[in-house]
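Worked example (supplementary).
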Amino acid sequence: MLENLFVGVADWLRSLLGGLGTPVEINEAIVMLVKLVAILVFILLNAAWLVYMERKVAAYMQARIGPNRVGPKGLLQPFADVGKLICKEIVIPRKADIVVFLLAPVLIFVPTVMVFAVIPFGKNMAAIDMNIGVFYLLAITSLSTLFLWMGGWASNSKYSLIGSMRVVAQMVSYELPLVLGLLGVIMIVGSLRMSDIIAAQEHVWFIFTQPIAFLIYFTAAVAETNRCPFDLVEGESEIISGPYTEYAGMAFAMFFMAEYANIMVICAMATIMFLGGWHAPFGLDFIPSWIWFFLKMYALIFIVMQLRWTYPRIRVDQLMGFGWKVLVPLALANIFITGVGMKIYQAIGW
Amino acid sequence: MLRTQEYFLNFGPQHPSTHGVFQIILTLDGERIVKAEPVCGYLHRGIEKLAESRTYTQVIPYTDRMDYLAAMLQNLGYVQAVEKLMGIEVPERAEYLRIISGELSRLASHLLATGVYALDIGAFTGFLICFRERERVMDLLEELTGSRMTLSYARIGGVADDAPEGWLDKVKQLMDAMPDYIAEYNGLITGNEIFQARTKFVGQLKPETAINYSLSGPVLRASGVNYDLRKVRPYGIYDRFDFEVPLGENGDCFDRFYCRVREMQQSVRIIQQAIEQIKEVGGPVQAKVPKVLKPPKGDVYHEIESAKGIIGYYVVSDGSNKPYRVHVRRPSFINLGYLDEMLRGYLIADVVAILGSIDIVLGEVDC
Amino acid sequence: MEDKVTALVEELRGKFPFIEVNEQKTVIVPVDKLLEFMQELKDNYALDFLTNLTAVDYPEENKFEVVYNINSIVKGYSLMVKTSVSREKPELPSVFPIWGGANWQERKVYDLMGIVFTGHPNLKRILLDPNFEGHPLRKDFQWEGGRE
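After joint prediction of all chains, the assembly is encoded as:
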């Protein structure tokens, strides 16, 4: 019952609409719309929850308590924050390019939301199961570079400019090891469809067959989301806030939420590609698949948060050196070894 | 042919990692520094001028407001200068209380420097972990003096008051636990790979340069120059304690940081010994001094080892009850003098690392 | 330590006839011999650390007294050297070529006391605003206005 909760809701909705006697196409469109709205609500709620979680994790790591005033255990703190940010004036610098400046925080959410359409949160729970799912996801996520850069450029501030230049350099450099890392998995599966990749991990997760690929992917992904230790883009002790320096109120909150949504995306992606997606380990099938998916995703998010609150920030030349001199060659070597391994396996006739 | 354009960046006065209102006008080529012009004075209050219209005792609270992170050491330098001018003998118990509170101040300052340096490099947790113990040191100082930061505890001829009942035991308790805490900082901050990559061989200072530019304190000692006034010219009763002077090898940011961490260990040792020795020392904590202090005509220069470096007081008396001139040699101010040359050729991220490793406090720079 | 300074001062007195030494072992040098004397201190007496540089205003005697405190890292002793310049033309050579540490300290003395150090590479105000008029640490400085 719980297993098919969301699928069941969709079916129930379909049958309800079917009773109204409207054409099937319209019914399907409505179901699709509901799915997308549900995903949108889910992203926003999750981003709020992640803000809370991050503050709590940080607090406990730093011998503090963290937010505990608004709501039970401070759970409503993110909503109080958002309420405050909505009330704030959006300050526009005098020499800013106003259209681009205001467009950037709106558009920053677009790629993130688009990406969630293909993520399978459980058995049969992807809004769309595309045959080029992985490719689509990688292509869309790299778009966010553009919007961060737009914001930094339009602010017309030197700190923003330095920050946005760092965004471009960092994102472009780490896109490569990220994709190359995933390539090992895709070679084994032979498909870009996410459901195929998950199905291939029914017995052995790819983290065990492709451990190096996982590490490369995870490192590059943390860098892609500008999280510590790769948070040079907003390194507050150097360039204040990078591209967000001039943003205030809700415009800033949009960037902030997009960051958390992006963390969700990369952790969901790592779950799909390496941790067996919604498959239950040790045959613990009685727990619904979507709960497994979220458990794995949150475990990874927790690691990302721990990284942030433990490590100092890396320097920009070290960042580039690490990306190009360590991650990329390692990823290429991994692909090579995977290819050779696959040929040997085929020769043996597995 | 690729041509790049140099541009200016106003680093401060409102910037999270200039440790106050301090400005550096950077000339940048990309992210690389071509020239750096430090601009200070945003916090200038004219303490030297103010001191000329106050009595000798009234100057003490002003000294707190310079290096407010290690206020007791600022007090101590001033009162010892005036005592030297007047030839006052300080009771032994007061000397011990001065050492204990002074070293606690040094500990508080170094704890902050360590934590803030971690924050400058980007590790927020290190900052708050160091604050945990700093808070306890602050509590102890508050119990002794009634104030957390601006202590004004030293008096000309002694200290304000004896330690409250049981206070020394509390200090001892914290000092016994401190080595474990310092090991924790080393695990969290010092030993971190990224931290070391960011700080090692960055902003290197040769010993000759450090001496030539009158740099002092951990900045000088990190370059391998063994010059600690507590050892070289022991003032007060520092000759009675057994401690070492931590030295660096490369004179880089990491050495400057690590020198402070090891100095904390030595401060703990000094306090532990002082607590052992003070038990046998009773008596007053204030020498018999006249109600109105009128030092004889003349001048005196006295310097002590503060948390940031050598703090010196030049006091001129014209025989009245107010100093004719008070000049303070402030370590943070003089340590900044070589900043421009130190920063050239490094990246913006290194500006933060180098500035943080000098450990300035703007109250003292601008005075 | 006291003996070392006494011995040093006695030796200096023998070597440089133009200096005076008072009872606090402070060496007083005429301003025209300052650079020569300071260079000698650094080269031959290991006084390599200019710890303090300041000035005092004496309007009654119509002079500024410039005070140098120099430490020796190796030998551990410290020497105070004084020189005076007239208030009408407060000018003396900079010791920046000898000790780099004089850089900011001379700027500060220039800023607050108005003494010009000739030969300083970058002598401009350091603590006060560049447009500020007057030199506040002079005894005859009057400040009109203040906080409005």
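Two points are worth noting when inspecting this output. Chains A and C do not touch (no CB pair under 8 Å). Chain A has one domain: 5-348.
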